[in-house]
């Protein structure tokens, strides 16, 4: 993209009614954005209808402010605009059915073209174990050079980014707002860390607020930037299932971590497994499934994962099992008196092997 070509690209996507599909239709019909904007009303109307044609010929009221804001934003370090067809545009996204015409990037745009990338998505309200799983999988894979892609949302998304950062790896946050806004606001510090270790990316103009329709749409970018999608926890109807479905449609691998049959956050993952998603219990499973896609030799070691203490090593862990369990039931299973059991549970909790859940339930922590 020539130094000033971004102005026409931005003007095109800032036109009300011009989404990614309409923009690509105009580009296919007339060529680059400058040629689109130079067309007569009649020619535009034939391509996209009279209403959008009229809007293309009149600057939106907010255009001068958006233009000035974007110019100031581009003047800052590590701020980039990447248009469809640019050499820097990620090839994996270019081959998807609905690539966005213009990407706003904060950080290193080369991260978008990482040869090994995995989407990690899931519930905004995960269990403590689910958040730990997301961090552990992301940490193990990022340590082996895999770029972790997610959406900066609360819950599993944030845990996945944190895991990648903890490993000193690369991570990409695809946001459903303007890239100059952080949503949720409490992730502002996390967003800065992601930009320093990878990048933030958005298809929306600067200043775009967190509108509900934008988040399902951004999921196609998350899936499109990667060779596989891991769903850690998801209820039925979760937006994470949209990402998984889009990944399947793109011919990418889908992985799901199973959970308790009683946990609502596991039902979406179980549904994906019934539909053909790969059941995974360790990061090694993902590494093995994507070895050929990632171009790894057969002898390449898989990422190391932590091990859960063997049930044979601790009778209380063996009695606890893997489902949330009330204290009384645990005590009945192991036959210990209250004082002894409480003391041992405290030791297990401090060592990170047991966690306490709302309602007085206890759950074993599984380290992937």
UniProtKB/TrEMBL annotation:
InterPro entries in alphabetical order: DprA, DprA_WH, DrpA_SLOG, RuvA_2-like, WH-like_DNA-bd_sf
Organism superkingdom: Bacteria
DprA winged helix domain mapped to chain residues: 301-360
Domain Smf/DprA SLOG positions: 81-290
GO terms (BP aspect): DNA-mediated transformation
Family named by the database record: Belongs to the DprA/Smf family.
Protein name from the UniProt record: DNA protecting protein DprA
């Amino acid at each position: 993209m020539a130094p000033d070509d971004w102005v026409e690209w931005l003007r095109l996507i800032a036109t009300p009614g011009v989404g990614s599909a309409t923009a690509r239709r105009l580009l296919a019909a007339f060529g680059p954005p400058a040629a689109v904007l130079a067309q007569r009303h009649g020619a535009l109307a034939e391509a996209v209808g009279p209403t959008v044609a009229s809007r293309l010929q009149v600057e939106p009221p907010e255009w001068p402010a958006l233009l000035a804001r974007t110019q100031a934003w581009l003047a800052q370090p590590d701020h980039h605009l990447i248009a469809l067809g640019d050499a820097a545009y990620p090839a994996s996204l270019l081959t998807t059915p609905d690539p966005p015409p213009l990407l706003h990037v904060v950080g290193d745009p080369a991260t978008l073209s990482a040869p090994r990338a995995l989407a990690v998505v899931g519930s905004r309200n995960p269990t403590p174990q689910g958040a730990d799983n997301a961090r552990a999988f992301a940490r193990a894979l990022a340590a082996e050079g895999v770029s972790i892609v997610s959406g900066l949302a609360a819950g599993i998304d944030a845990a996945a980014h944190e895991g990648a950062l903890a490993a000193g790896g690369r991570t990409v946050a695809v946001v459903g707002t303007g890239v100059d806004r952080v949503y949720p606001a409490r992730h502002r510090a996390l967003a800065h860390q992601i930009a320093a270790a990878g990048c933030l990316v958005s298809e929306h103009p600067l200043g775009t607020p967190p509108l509900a329709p934008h988040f399902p749409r951004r999921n196609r970018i998350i899936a499109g930037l990667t060779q596989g999608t891991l769903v850690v926890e998801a209820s039925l109807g979760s937006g994470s299932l949209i990402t998984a479905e889009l990944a399947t449609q793109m011919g990418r691998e889908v992985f799901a971590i199973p959970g308790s049959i009683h946990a609502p956050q596991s039902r979406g993952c179980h549904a994906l497994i019934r539909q053909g998603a790969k059941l995974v219990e360790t990061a090694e499973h993902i590494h093995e499934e994507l070895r050929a896609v990632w171009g790894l030799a057969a002898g390449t070691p898989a990422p190391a994962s932590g091990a859960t203490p063997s049930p044979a090593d601790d009778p209380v862990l063996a009695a606890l099992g893997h489902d949330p369990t009330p204290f009384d039931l645990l005590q009945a299973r192991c036959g210990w008196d209250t004082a002894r059991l409480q003391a041992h549970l405290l030791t297990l909790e401090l060592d990170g092997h047991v966690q306490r859940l709302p309602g007085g339930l206890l759950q074993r922590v599984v380290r992937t």
